[in-house]
TrEMBL record:
It comes from Cordyceps fumosorosea (strain ARSEF 2679) (Isaria fumosorosea). It comes from the Eukaryota. This is WD40 repeat-like-containing domain protein. Gene3D superfamilies: YVTN repeat-like/Quinoprotein amine dehydrogenase (2.130.10.10). Keywords: Repeat, WD repeat. PANTHER family: DDB1 AND CUL4 ASSOCIATED FACTOR 4 (PTHR44472:SF1), DDB1- AND CUL4-ASSOCIATED FACTOR 4-RELATED (PTHR44472). GO terms for cellular component: Cul4-RING E3 ubiquitin ligase complex.
Amino acid sequence: MPAEIPGYYFDPEKNKYFKIEHASTAPRAAAWSADSVKRRRVAAESSAAADDRARLLRRHIRRWRQQGQLTGDTITRALLQRELGDKNADSEADVRAAVWASGAVDKGSVSLARGTRSANMPCMYVNGDDTKTGLGVVYATLGEERLVGSYIPTDDNDTITFSATAPLDSGRSRALHTEFLRFPQLSSITYHAPSHRIIATSRSPNNSVYLFSPHLSEEADVRRPRWLLGRLPENGYHGLCPNSAGSAVAHTAAPAPTSSSSRLLCLVGTNVGVLRVNAGVSDHRTLSWVGERVPLKPTPGAAAADGHPRETLALDFLHNHPEVFLAGGRRSQLWITDMRAPPSSTSHRVGSGQQRTAVAHLRSVSEHLLLTAGPPSSMATYDTRFLRSPVVRFDEYRNEAHVHAGWDVCAELGLVAAAHDDGTVKLFSLGSGRRCRPEAGGGLDGVRTDAPIRALSFRRMPRERLPSLFVGEGAVVRKFSLGVRALGNEA
């Protein structure tokens, strides 16, 4: 760089010095006039100052990223990343899940027992289809034997609220409705909407599947709820057991998707394979095994030879494929079965590690993505085309030994609710696998029991904008929703 000589201007184009002249004697627009030199000096100083400020700002941002001061606060981090234009900002789905988890509050509860301390309910089903009266419905089992139902009335703040003056048949008074039939060792409760049938599975070897249809009120009857609970035998109860089932017990059921055009009602996962239940009739001929029934004591090498599902702990239909289902078993076993072809299944092992985990829960969340969970402390998302390694791991999931711990997925909120073996319930982002933490001392932080929670369900209530999480704690069903505890506390 040429030396700076006082009173002279160096022209880089002509590569020589010019004496700085007063504007009155220098040629017009001359680069060596006093005004031109002064103007260039001021512009250069301003540009240098702006560069210095930019370097300082970049150093501050880099220091924040390295220190990771906001790694636990997804919402604040996302807001700051958006302001800074960070291309690696958290996804919209992650932020949506974190907002729901941090803003969820206790919205009341429904007690299914009168003044008695009970173990955590094994299973429950929550329905929110009654747009006529706005009432929700919950069916649950206490002691794995009695099926108890209750309505879920809510107020303007979406809080569960019973009325002491409402008529008994309105569904808004506090009352329990028992289906007066024994359902021994109930393991799951689901609902097939097209046929309006409740499907209950049992671990009792005498009856594997129970079906009934809650009685419906007339559409013009706006005084009574759409579902009329506790109306057996009007509800058309049927108990089904497959021929020659022996000691077969049912663990779970998957209702057929509404898009299915067949007579399929549901699939039932048992300890000896998968049962297919067809709708329309009530005798044993409605049941058939998918593939061949697996013997309770198979010969050595039989598992590798037939490829059909064996002990099935979890079932779900492949996303947008009502004729293809997924079945999960013990020792990381996963089966994919196409019912359109002659009975044939493809057997897979989830993951590539030496540790074998139970696929106690599974959910098809998109065309190719599958979410699985089970002990010991394993939850991950897999691509069904490449099952050897997970796409996303849920590293903070803790369940070392409980196959029947509660678990549910809400794709709309991008959330996974999972019961931990310390008696708490945690929320995770479906997209990233990160834990979504509630506000300190609020929301799901208030759930803590001596044994793991076994019943969890995401469900949208009638006339509500977003789904809520229902937790079966003892004999009480608690509701958690995004909102405020009382109207007027929005701030």
